[in-house]
Amino acid sequence: MTDLESSIQFLPGVGPKRAELIARELGVGTLGELIRIYPFRYVDRSRITPIAAIDSCAAAIQIRARVVRATLYGQGSAVIARNEFSPDGSLVSRTLARETVNGVPRQQGPDGAVIKFNLVKRLAVLVDDGSGRIEMVFFKGIKWSWTQLSGGGEFVFFGKPQQFNGNYSIVHPEVDRPQGTAAAAGGLTGVYPSTEKLKTGGVTGKVMCRLQAAALEACLPLVRESLPQYLIDSLGLCSLQSALRNIHFPKDARSLEMAQYRLKFEELFFLQLSLLKAKYIRSRSECGIAMPLVGDAFRKCYDALPYKLTGAQQRVVKEMFADMKSGRQMNRLLQGDVGSGKTMVAVLCCLIAHGNGCQSCIMAPTEVLARQHFDNISRYLAPTGVKCALLMGSTTAKERRPIHEGLADGSISIVVGTHALLEDPVVFKRLGLAVIDEQHRFGVDQRSRLWRKGPVLNGVQYAPHVLVMTATPIPRTLAMTLYGDLDVSVIDEMPPGRKPVQTMCIGQNRKKALYNFMKKEIAAGHQVFVVFPMIFDNEKVDMQNLERGYDEICDAFPLKDGYKVAIVHGKQSAEEKQFNMSAFAAGRANILVATTVIEVGVDVPNASVMVIESAQRFGLSQLHQLRGRVGRGSDAAYCILVKDVKTGKDAQERLDLMCSTENGFEIAEADMKLRGPGDLEGTQQSGLPFELSIASLSKDGRLLEQAREVASKVLDADPALEQPRNAVLVRELRKDKYNIKDYSKIS
Ligand code: ADP
Ligand code: MG
């Protein structure tokens, strides 16, 4: 009896070896798992493309054509064997090379002799369909393809055309006899995810289709519905069985759409349900430290502010205070574009904690940034008398001791620092709030260490309130999923008086004009950033470019004319970096040549120009972050993107977008669409805490919101999922796929 748990090994055409290959490459071992591997694309196999109509942006196409010539090439493109055919399909000539290469004969004997396939590097098959010719190329599985094609005749080829030296070719097409195509099966054929190993192991697209058909045949009726009937009815979804059948073998376009909708919804719904459920549970069980008071220090600081808080800042502070006094633990993400004034908000929250007898820590990703926070925060705190310390990796043992003591006895109320704060000797008397700036630099693990530094009150370990701040405007859909159980506050208003940053993109040939422009700005008393890329896998070359760029700028802005140029990069020691950075911040240098170490946070209001070299190599969010470094003063600011000659189409698109908008959220959305969410800055290191098999965060944003709403309604009505009608949800949530690591707790 086969069921969903049966091994794929028992499918026709799959033995232990293939089963193992499939398990290794696709991670599936049972029939139930196999049918959850969906096609990622569909092709209309009823459509044949004439060769003359091929264009470069075509996806996979189908061609029906005759073999004109099949050639086996060896080392250095020497011909090993070649068969040529006339238009009517008869063999015209047959060549077998007799020369040797490095003394090794490429073949032996006369016509029909054995070809030494281990010497063959490539098989090229030229085909003709009457409208034109195109070459099919094989680097692997050559013997098999030669057997199939070298006798000539008409075939159907399926694959993605590529352009090479002005000619089109298809590498490793699927090959079929004309009558054997899927045209009869109604047109739409799924294309499954595959790997080179699968293909060479014989598990081609065609084989995969056959396996899926056999698997569905064997066990589709056993697939249990995963959503409660009341949801299926109210949302107008198709049944799971119907969805699975049509996702693999669509009856027609409409059925496919219904199937995709149902499966995407299901996936996003369970993801949201599991995140929101964790939040419900936590909000009931985890006690937060209640902070009902505002306190004197808060008022003193507030009254002494040199400016009025923006409406958005006020609203956000209120939201946090509501959390902090609630008796539940705050777990909040604060999003605000660069320069929107997040620091002030963080300080006010720390003062609330202080007013309730609690300490706070503020963690920054780099020492430069931590120091800058410390300087700013100390200024804000001056009127309050609240004690603040700075603790980083470079803090000496001698300086550390009093800080450790002050934190342990509670005399230091706020500590600013880097990862050093997470070290074991750092013990707080009563840590009530942890502020994490630019969270994406902190891993999940580090966050949990912070978590454990909370106070033990009456024998119970309390987690500090957590405020995560980010200037990377995470698109809403991604935030909802990544931080499904986190509350999100947004500062969507800039402090008054900020000027828009004029952005333009220029070529290398305009350097001279650029330098003249920089000189004008410097003459007007402003400062200039010049940023070079420093990308991990290209570090050496990047370093050379940076040094060359620095020399060039020093030449163009010589000391004898009164110019001072500073340089900051990751290879410098912390002190050197700090020294050069401060020189620029204090106005002692006119130009700061730097790598992206200045990306986050650094605040030099007098800097009016941001020049970004090889701008095409930066990601959108990075460009946006860098641009946010200027325009902080009240004078006009400029961002100049200098691109290299070889700037690709995608890169140009990014640069154009930068020139057309300053809206960080718009940029983040576009970034996600261009790169896909997995690559989005901030998720790269930690990785998404779950895998999506059919839904896409960048494309299915609306559906995600809908899924979240439905999940939230289900939980509102039945928080513990105890009602019989929701039993099926409980069963489904137990699956590994929806067990999102520890993530929900520690973000
Ligand atoms: P973020 O961390 O969000 O990028 P900061 O907190 O560093 O932004 O603030 C940027 C600048 O704006 C700082 O110089 C800060 O003093 C100033 N600022 C913050 N809030 C206001 C406000 N309400 N009005 C005027 N200036 C403000
Ligand atoms: Mg900041």
List the helices and strands and how they pair.
Layout: H1 16-26, H2 31-34, E1 41-44, E2 61-73, E3 79-85, E4 91-96, E5 100-101, E6 104-105, E7 122-128, E8 133-138, H3 142-149, E9 154-159, E10 161-164, E11 167-171, E12 174-176, E13 188-191, H4 196-200, H5 205-219, H6 229-235, H7 240-248, H8 253-285, H9 296-304, H10 311-325, E14 331-336, H11 342-355, E15 359-363, H12 367-381, E16 388-391, H13 397-409, E17 414-417, E18 431-437, H14 444-451, E19 456-457, E20 460-461, E21 465-470, H15 476-482, E22 487-491, E23 501-507, H16 511-523, E24 527-531, H17 539-556, E25 565-568, H18 574-585, E26 591-594, E27 607-612, H19 620-627, E28 637-643, H20 649-660, H21 664-675, H22 701-717, H23 727-733, H24 743-746
Adenosine-5'-diphosphate binds near residues 336 and 342.
What is the compact description of this entry?
The chain has 24 helices and 28 strands. It has 747 residues and is of the alpha/beta class. Strands 2, 3, 4, 7, 8, 9, 10, 11 and 12 form a 9-stranded mixed beta sheet that branches. It has a 7-stranded parallel beta sheet with strand order 16-17-15-18-21-14-22, sandwiched between helices.
As residue ranges, the low-confidence spans are 103-112, 181-185, 680-687, 741-747
Number of strands: 28
Q: How would you sum up the global shape?
A: globular
**Helix proportion range:** 25-40%
- Unique ligands: adenosine-5'-diphosphate, magnesium ion
Mean pLDDT: 85
Write down the oligomeric state: single chain
Number of helices: 24
N→C terminal distance: 46 Å
Decide which structural class fits the backbone. Answer: alpha/beta
- Global Rg: 32 Å
Tell me the major beta sheet. 9 strands, mixed
Range of strand content: 15-25%
